[in-house]
Design a protein that fits this description.
- The complex is a heterodimer of chains A (305) and B (98).
- Chain A has 3 domains: 6-124, Helix Hairpins (Orthogonal Bundle), CATH 1.10.287.110; 139-202, Urease metallochaperone UreE, N-terminal domain (HSP40/DNAj peptide-binding domain, Sandwich), CATH 2.60.260.20; 210-304, Urease metallochaperone UreE, N-terminal domain (HSP40/DNAj peptide-binding domain).
- Chain A is 30% helix and 22% strand.
- Chain A is built from 9 helices and 11 strands.
- A 4-stranded mixed sheet of chain A has the order 6-7-11-10. In chain A, strands 1-5-4 form a 3-stranded mixed sheet, with no helix packed on it.
- In chain A, α2 (18-32) runs antiparallel to α3 (41-57).
- The longest helix of chain A has 17 residues, at 41-57.
- With 98 residues, chain B is mainly alpha-helical.
- Chain B has a single domain (5-93), classed as Orthogonal Bundle (Multidrug-efflux Transporter Regulator, Chain: A, Domain 2), CATH 1.10.1660.
- A 3-stranded antiparallel sheet of chain B has the order 1-3-2.
- Classes of the chains: A alpha+beta (305), B mainly alpha (98).
- The interface between A and B is medium-sized, with 27 and 28 residues.
Chain lengths: 305, 98
């Protein structure tokens, strides 16, 4: 646990007045407040630092203690105990150190650092909203889903901060998409409302299908004879295999569109995009002497035409 | 079952918000309220926005016009994020993300 320079965080010098602290805090808070930087974890982290620095420096009592011990904060309690034994220390009265709540934000801010809690105790957070309660911290979680899982509405149980949360994931969620679960974040304090839980989906590439929005792409192999003469070929879809008719003279790289066999449309039950199959015509390998003769004959026929 | 509308004066009292601030938000078209039997109500679905605007107003000292500008900008930012995500996924689909 390292010493935190609250003055540096707010960009002010040690002689800054209370007004300067307030001004510096407001300016930085406007830049990094989570309401103005949604889903930005860096901004949220910076905001927590700023909030904590303000919590200490805007409160004369806390600032005095912070200034007094500075980088020797680890020995703060030891020093205080010694001073009290000597009877000469005029400390904070009545142990009511925390009664003066700071003018912190009621927004998403999060907790305090270990450094802060070592110096001021875990009850040292004086952030108080207009309601008198503390809104719980917003939580972020990442959920990995396979492409096939993302294609079906299903329930999952997540463990976030030791708490099990059962959620329904609608079919059609996208890689990188974030959904908000209101009130599923950290619980509020003092009657404050709980924070929200933000879940971001990570959907790795599928070995069979490629996805572009609601369209699915599949490359399917086709033997030379079926490509030339036509026929039928089994291909995979999300619902299982289907038999496709192959037109005679199908070229390598040509595409077939299967309507409604693509990816489900998010929050539109029963609707799905298309599946686009690209034919990959595979030439026969290791042909026999007889096959070679027949191909030679085909070549001659081709040149005569 | 949770109520869909709550009495505005009760909300203001519990949350320490001035009714005049709500009126400003309403005038600016940032929230909607409804009057019934001489009482003003706010839909529960709007509380999330009201909480956010209150933080901007009280904690960040941003006035209501500023809140409206920020709201527009955040909406545009969200649209752009969606578009970036969509394009990233497209690039990935066509194997051009490296």
């Amino acid at each position: 646990m390292a010493y935190i320079d609250y003055y540096k965080i707010l960009g002010i010098n040690k002689n800054a007045s209370q007004d300067e602290v307030k001004k510096a805090y407001k300016k930085l808070a406007r830049k990094h407040h989570p309401d103005l930087n949604p889903n930005d974890r860096d901004a949220q982290r910076r905001f927590q630092e700023i909030n904590e620095a303000n919590e200490v420096l805007s409160d004369p009592e806390k600032r005095k203690k912070y200034d007094q011990y500075g980088e020797n904060w680890k020995h703060a309690d030891e020093f205080e105990a010694r001073k009290q034994q000597q009877g000469g220390y005029q400390g904070y009265s009545g142990g009511d150190f925390w009664s003066s709540a700071g003018e912190g934000f009621s927004g998403e801010g999060g907790g305090f650092s270990d450094f802060f809690e070592s110096l001021f105790g875990s009850a040292g957070g004086g952030r108080r909203g207009r309601s008198g309660g503390f809104r719980g911290q917003d939580l972020n979680a990442e959920l990995r889903l396979s492409l096939r899982e993302a294609a079906e509405t299903h329930k999952q149980v997540l463990t976030v901060n030791g708490r099990s949360i059962r959620i329904t994931i609608p079919a059609g969620v996208e890689n990188g998409q974030t959904i908000k679960l209101k009130g599923q974040g950290a619980p509020g304090m003092n009657g404050g409302v709980p924070g929200d839980l933000y879940i971001t989906f990570a959907i790795p590439d599928d070995p069979v299908f490629k996805r572009d929005g609601n369209s699915l792409y599949l490359t399917a192999s086709l033997d030379l004879y079926t490509a030339i003469l036509g026929g039928e070929q089994m291909v995979s879809t999300l619902d299982g295999k289907v038999k496709l008719k192959v037109q005679p003279g199908t070229q390598n790289g040509s595409k077939v569109r299967l309507k409604g066999k693509g990816f489900p449309v998010y929050k539109r039950e029963g609707e799905a995009g298309d599946l686009i199959v690209t034919w990959n015509v595979v030439l026969p390998s290791g042909i026999s002497g007889k096959q070679k003769e027949l191909f030679e004959e085909l070549r001659k026929l081709e040149s005569k035409q | 079952m949770e109520p869909e509308w709550i009495i505005l004066s009760d909300y203001c009292l519990v949350n320490g918000i001035e009714p005049s601030f709500i009126l400003l938000l309403k005038e600016e078209g940032l929230i909607e309220t409804r009057e019934k039997d001489g009482r003003e109500y706010i839909p529960v679905s709007q509380l999330h926005y009201l909480e956010r605007y209150s933080r901007m107003y009280y904690d960040l000292s941003i006035n209501v016009e500023g809140i409206d500008v920020i709201r527009h900008m955040l909406e545009r930012m969200e649209e752009m994020h969606r578009e970036i995500r969509r394009l990233e996924n497209r690039l990935r689909c066509f194997g051009m993300d490296n």
